[in-house]
Design brief:
Helix content is 50%, strand content 8%. α3 crosses α5. By secondary structure, the protein is mainly alpha-helical.
Length: 157
């Protein structure tokens, strides 16, 4: 049995087949329309070296679309997804914990919608590249100003 066939069988066994649509590769221009149809974003990254260092862009894409998320409890995700405000962090090696978090969001649609709305508000207000650009520019200005104060240029004679 192929992985996909096994997954579909497992979804039927768990009574979840009506909540999950399995698609193949999706062209990037089609992604926004698909995300608008979703109710939950899932970022089930495993604790491999790459994912222990990188912040997953997908998390912010889901939030920008107003989706509550279930994401792996990995160090780069922790500062952004805390206190169950925008969704849940789960042990990346525990499939039951992932399934339980998804089931909770499915069975609590009003709370899931509120989490998604809070996430979208955060992305529009503070978790976006424009805010980060301003913070980085401010940092550079402070460094340059400090350099000029600490090490003034000699006055030419």
């Amino acid at each position: 049995m192929t992985f996909i066939a096994n997954l579909k069988k497992r979804l039927v066994d768990l009574g979840l087949e009506s909540f999950v649509e399995i698609r193949g590769r999706v062209a990037p221009p089609e992604v926004p329309a698909l995300l608008c149809q979703a109710r939950i974003g899932v970022v089930p990254l495993q604790p491999i070296p790459k994912f222990l260092k990188n912040i997953p862009t997908k998390l912010f894409e889901y939030w920008a679309c107003g989706l509550a998320t279930v994401a792996s409890d990995l160090p780069p995700i922790q500062p952004f997804l805390r206190n169950n405000e925008f969704g849940f962090r789960v042990n990346p090696t525990d499939p039951k914990e992932l399934a339980d978090a998804l089931a909770w969001l499915i069975t609590h649609p009003d709370r899931a919608e509120a989490m998604g709305n809070a996430a979208r508000k955060a992305v529009l207000g503070r978790l976006n590249t424009e805010c980060e650009r301003k913070r980085l520019s401010g940092f550079y200005e402070r460094v340059i100003l400090k350099k000029h104060i600490d090490h003034p240029r000699p006055i030419a004679s």
